[in-house]
Every structure is written in C-alpha cells, then in structure tokens.
Amino acid sequence: MTFVIGAACVDVLDRACVEECPIDCIFEGGRMAYIQPDDCIDCGACEPVCPVEAIYFEDDLPAGQEEFIAENARFFAEPLPGRDAPLGQPGSASGVGVLGVDTEYVREYRP
C-alpha cells in the first residue's frame, strides 16, 4: 500500500507535500502532483501538510476517486506527452524538476 494524491489536488499544486517528502518522491505535473508508488516509503509526512487534504493511503481514497490510484502509477509507467519513454523511477523529484504534463485522465478531469 502507498499514498495517493486525489482529486482535490487538481489545479491546486500547493507544493507543501513536495517540500515535506523526506525521499523526494512527489513529482509535479501540469495540474497536480503525483507520488511515485514504488519509491514511497509510506511515512505519511506528506498527508498532514496538504492544505486541501488530497493525500490518502490508497485503500482510504474517497469513493469516486479510485481512478487516481491508477493515474498516480500511470504517470510513471507510461510515456507522458512529449516523452518517448516512461518516467519510471527517475530518482529525486527535485532533480527532475517540474514536468508540467499530466496523464490523459487528469488533463481532461473536471471536478
């Protein structure tokens, strides 16, 4: 089980979670942030600092937001727009920087 960023993050991108993550595994897309599920150590440091309460254990994601589990994983597992290969496990998010793109689902998501 890992932490997942849900719908409340879309179009907010507060960055408090990014700054709090001790292993630097929260990456910035265009409309929201994504947690690298294979790197997350489930420490929970990101959850209490999120001002919009968008971060959950994947089993605790509110009803209707289940797709965000897949989207957090898809962000790393499939090529993003403008990229030829998946992001995978690139190491530190700060080393990669702001990616500025999202999965198709998030790009088209309307709250």
List the SSEs and their pairings.
Blueprint: E1 3-5, H1 16-20, E2 26-28, E3 33-35, E4 55-57, H2 67-77, H3 93-96, H4 104-108
Antiparallel strand pairs: 1-4, 2-3
Characterization of this structure:
The protein is an alpha+beta fold and 111 residues long. It has one domain: Alpha-Beta Plaits, CATH 3.30.70. Helix content is 23%, strand content 11%. The strands form two sheets. A two-stranded antiparallel ribbon has the order 1-4. The protein has a two-stranded antiparallel sheet with strand order 2-3. Strand 2 and strand 3 form a beta hairpin. The longest helix is centred in the middle third of the chain and has 11 residues. It is globular, with a radius of gyration of 12 Å. The termini are far apart. Ferredoxins are iron-sulfur proteins that transfer electrons in a wide variety of metabolic reactions. Keywords: 3Fe-4S, 4Fe-4S, Electron transport, Iron, Iron-sulfur, Metal-binding, Repeat, Transport. This is Ferredoxin. Its cofactor is [4Fe-4S] cluster; [3Fe-4S] cluster.
Rounded to the nearest angstrom, the distance between the terminal CA atoms is 26 Å
Radius of gyration: 12 Å
Q: What general form does the structure show?
A: globular
> The biggest beta sheet, please?
2 strands, antiparallel
Structural class: alpha+beta
What percentage of the residues does DSSP assign to strands (E)? 5-15%
Pfam families: Fer4
Cofactor: [4Fe-4S] cluster; [3Fe-4S] cluster
Function: Ferredoxins are iron-sulfur proteins that transfer electrons in a wide variety of metabolic reactions.
GO molecular function: 3 iron, 4 sulfur cluster binding; 4 iron, 4 sulfur cluster binding; electron transfer activity; metal ion binding
